[in-house]
Design a protein that fits this description.
Elements lengths: L2 H9 L5 H16 L6 H17 L1 H12 L3 H27 L2 E3 L8 E9 L2 E5 L7 H12 L3 E5 L5 H14 L5 E3 L4 H8 L5 E5 L2 H12 L5 E4 L5 E4 L5 H12 L13 E5 L3 H16 L15 H12 L7 E3 L3 E2 L4 E2 L2 E4 L16 E7 L4 H7 L6 E5 L3 H10 L4 E4 L13 E2 L5 E2 L1 E2 L2 H6 L1 E9 L14 H12 L2 H8 L4
Parallel strand pairs: 3-4, 3-6, 4-5, 6-7, 8-9, 8-15, 9-14, 13-14, 15-16
Antiparallel strand pairs: 1-2, 2-20, 7-18, 10-13, 11-12, 17-19
Helix pairs in contact: 2-8, 3-5, 3-6, 4-5, 4-7, 5-6, 10-11, 16-17
Length: 492
């Protein structure tokens, strides 16, 4: 580093609690001006986000190549393609989403009318994750803007090239009086969390999720927590095994080499069927990534040395080191771990205690497949759960029995791309949901409004309270027309 670079770094202004407070204050002034509430401003900013991604597609691909060695196709499909779709869905539906929803009123408030008016919450904070740094940053921002909020985005420092590019591009394309980016790590995030926000949207792990929720509780700030968990895959024997194996591989290793919140975390199948499933997975893995997957250009690397060490520790556990039936190769210098299958892993092993978030796939076996639902439900609720079967009754039992953020039958991860479905967790896998209109709703307050005229001002609600008024009030509370008529005429 040159002296000039060092001097510039030393002069760089520290982002502390005071700076964070000033930032929020500026954004509250902008929000208070009313500019974010107009349909025109919201549309202009969503269009600006869309243009940002379209204009800079190659820069985004390059940033993710730098941060994760991400194959360009995965970036184009799972980051750029999904983001473009979110923008287009929002632009198409926003005018309708913003309209007040007329609702019925009852005889108790006659004559009256009522509606539910969606209004922006105010100034919101989005803290995003490193594994899909563009999609998981900008997708919630679409919802925040569409709902009419001012927003601060805090990208993950673990994906530094993506974080830097996000800060640069949002600074160039967006209305910076209402949309800002704060880069940094723990200190900057802590400074932001000390402030009062109108909502906090966090994507990441449960440990930090608890920190975010604790900070939010001090100000009674509502939160959306998009976390993760051990997403299971239950595999029946009556399936197209080749297709199932390909779809499991696509959701596990074809999504950032297992570093995805809805990536299959472990498989459950019967003891009898397990060898066939392992063979099918081996065959398809070799077709996809070759005999030396550490050299494959189609697999992302592990994000950093800390995560590499964490995954290595899982593999070196005495309870599982002898259970590897495929893969297990590592290259620490390149932060690469090959797709790895482990068979008959003990349920009390380290690899089964927390979300793996990497290219390791344990396979548990049971005598009867129905037992798998008890295995899943004995742990914390996952973000996603998958079932491969052609058995209708088993499918119905799966949907009725397994609690997860989302379920998918005969595929993996694709429920993420259906914008008419809410995406979010339950229990320890998160709280709140987004995608499509659900993103708009996540950053809106549904304001109840009742309209009455000066006509029909009955004396029944005012003192003095007589027996007749009491009978009428009981009838009104009961809601029945016949009861009201009986009360009016004094009939018991």
């Amino acid at each position: 580093m040159s002296f000039e670079e060092s001097n510039n770094n030393n002069n760089k202004k520290v982002f502390d609690a005071e700076e964070a407070s000033l930032l929020v204050k500026d954004l509250r002034v902008s929000f208070g001006s009313g500019k974010t509430r107009s349909y025109e401003w919201r549309v202009s900013q969503v269009k600006a986000l869309l243009k940002l991604v379209v204009d800079n597609e190659q820069l985004i691909i390059d940033a993710l190549r730098s941060d994760l060695a991400r194959p360009p196709l995965e970036t184009v499909v799972y980051e750029i393609g999904m983001f473009k779709n979110s923008c287009e869905v929002t632009l198409k539906g926003l005018k309708q989403w913003m309209k007040p929803e007329k609702v019925k009123t009852s005889i108790r408030t006659f004559p009256s009318s009522a509606e539910i008016v969606p209004e922006p919450l105010g100034v919101v904070l989005v803290i995003s994750a490193w594994n899909y740094p563009f999609l998981l940053s900008l997708d919630p921002v679409i919802g925040a803007i569409a709902a009419g909020n001012a927003v601060v985005l805090k990208p993950s420092e673990i994906a530094p090239a993506s974080s830097s590019l996000l800060a640069k591009l949002l600074g160039e394309y967006m209305d910076n009086s209402c949309v800002r980016v704060v880069e940094g790590a723990v200190d900057e995030t802590s400074a932001l969390l000390q402030q009062k926000w109108d909502k906090i949207f966090y994507t990441g792990n449960g440990r930090v999720g608890r920190i975010v929720m604790t900070a939010a509780a001090k100000h009674l700030t509502p939160v959306v927590l998009e976390l993760g968990g051990k997403s299971p895959v239950v595999v029946d024997s009556n399936i197209n095994l080749e297709v199932a194996a390909r779809r499991i591989i696509s959701g596990k290793w074809g999504c950032n080499n297992g570093q995805a919140c809805i990536s299959p975390d472990y498989v459950i199948t019967t003891k009898e069927f397990a060898p066939k499933l392992v063979d099918a997975l081996k065959t398809e893995l070799e077709k996809f990534y070759g005999k030396n997957p550490l050299e494959s250009e189609d697999l992302s690397r592990i994000v950093n040395s800390n995560h590499f060490a964490r995954l290595t520790k899982l593999l070196d556990d005495d309870k599982v080191s002898g259970k590897i039936v495929y893969g297990g190769e590592k290259d620490e210098s390149k932060l690469r771990i090959a797709p790895t299958l482990l068979l008959d892993v003990p349920r009390d092993s380290l690899i089964m205690s927390d979300e793996i978030f990497g290219p390791l796939l344990p396979i548990l076996t049971v005598e009867k497949l129905e037992e798998s639902f008890d295995v899943i439900n004995s742990g914390t609720k996952p973000l996603a759960a998958y079932l491969f079967t052609t058995n209708k009754k088993l499918t119905e039992h799966f949907v009725a029995t397994v609690s997860a953020g989302g379920l998918l039958v005969n595929d993996t991860v694709l429920h993420l791309v259906v914008h008419t479905l809410p995406f979010g967790g339950v229990g320890e896998s998160g709280t709140g949901a987004y995608h499509g209109k659900f993103s708009f709703d996540a950053f809106s307050h549904k304001k109840a409004v009742l309209y009455r005229s000066f006509i029909g001002d009955g004396a029944i609600r005012y003192p003095p309270y007589t027996n007749t008024k009491l009978r009428l009030m009981k009838a009104l509370i009961g809601g029945g027309i016949l009861g009201i008529i009986r009360a009016l005429f004094g009939w018991s």
